[in-house]
Specification:
Layout lengths: L1 H17 L13 E8 L2 E2 L7 E10 L12 E5 L6 E4 L2 E4 L9 E4 L2 E4 L1 H10 L1 E9 L8 E11 L2 E12 L3 E3 L20 E10 L3 E7 L4 E4 L7 E8 L2 E2 L3 E8 L7 E9 L10 E2 L2 E7 L1
Parallel strand pairs: 2-11
Antiparallel strand pairs: 1-3, 3-9, 4-8, 4-10, 5-6, 7-8, 10-11, 12-13, 13-19, 14-18, 14-21, 15-16, 15-20, 16-17, 16-19
């Protein structure tokens, strides 16, 4: 009887032991990811704040087992660098900082960190700021694009086109950055000529208009009845009416900083009262 019970007891022991085996985590069945662009789609060179290009990764199915956190997720660009936006032969390259972000740069790809994968699996979505567009750059205007792919465990899941529209823009720079300047005439004389330079940067053709507060006259501090001196204006060698209704066209020679010259020539100065004569002349720049 004893020899017959031994295998029975052995079988019961194995069965009992099996009841206490830890449950196995559900295997990751794999999943699809779609990639979408959000954030900035335009870039204005004259803006003072950087633009941020962002993407969203969305999983399908949305609910995934925790074991899917182990699958590597990568983002690559057809241009070789996800920071490059291409328009024909023109290239606009942003910058990227990996600090405190859920991805790291490995060679030419963005690779989600374990924390980034955990957030993606837990929420079914992950928003990433991948490129910063620094202010004050003046690339050629136009439509720029960057095709990016997302990969899960070495398998490409989706491709999308990141689009960036670079606008025509102009900005006063250097000594003209404040937007104001002064021309001192000293003793007023007919035909007296004074000039000043202004500094600007643009990525397109532009127009300049001039608008005088006093209709093209330096007016006595106590009013026009005490005297007014007419003047004429030339901007970058071209005669410009100061009514604000006419304009000159300028074709830049570079996308870098350039300078122009404003020349003011006084007219008749006879019969003037002693005092200060002033006017405010506003030059307006418009890129197109």
């Amino acid at each position: 009887m004893k020899t017959l019970m031994k295998p029975v007891l052995s079988i019961l022991w194995l069965a009992a032991a099996g009841l206490f085996l830890p449950a196995q985590a559900a295997a990751c069945p794999g999943y699809d990811i779609s990639i979408y662009q959000n954030g900035h789609t335009t870039y204005a060179p004259e803006d003072d704040l950087p633009g941020i290009v962002s993407i969203s990764l969305v999983t399908n199915p949305a609910a995934l087992p925790q074991s899917c956190r182990r699958l590597p997720v990568e983002i690559s660009s057809r241009s070789g660098d996800i920071r490059n936006f291409i328009s024909g032969r023109s290239r606009f390259t942003g910058v990227g900082s990996d600090a405190a972000k859920p991805f790291a740069r490995v060679r030419e790809r963005l690779v989600l960190t374990p924390a980034g994968r955990a957030e993606l699996v837990a929420n079914g979505r992950l928003d990433l700021e991948i490129v910063e567009l620094p202010p004050g750059r003046f690339p050629t205007p136009g439509r720029y694009a960057n095709f990016v792919d997302v990969w899960v465990d070495g398998i490409r899941q989706d491709r999308t086109e990141l689009v960036l529209s670079v606008q025509a823009g102009v900005k006063l720079v250097g000594q003209s950055a404040s937007g104001t300047g002064t021309i001192e005439f000293g003793e007023l004389e007919r035909g007296l000529r004074r000039s000043t330079r202004f500094f600007y940067q643009t990525n397109a053709n532009m127009t300049i208009t001039a608008k005088s507060d006093n209709g093209g006259y330096l007016v006595h501090e106590d009013g026009r009845s005490f005297g007014a001196v007419p003047y004429k204006v030339r901007v970058m060698g071209k005669r410009l009416d100061v009514s604000g209704n006419s304009r000159i066209r300028i074709v830049p020679t570079t996308n870098g900083p350039e300078s122009g010259q404003l020349i003011v020539v006084l007219g008749k100065t006879s019969g003037l009262y002693t005092g200060d004569y002033r006017d405010v002349l506003t030059l307006s720049f418009s890129a197109f």
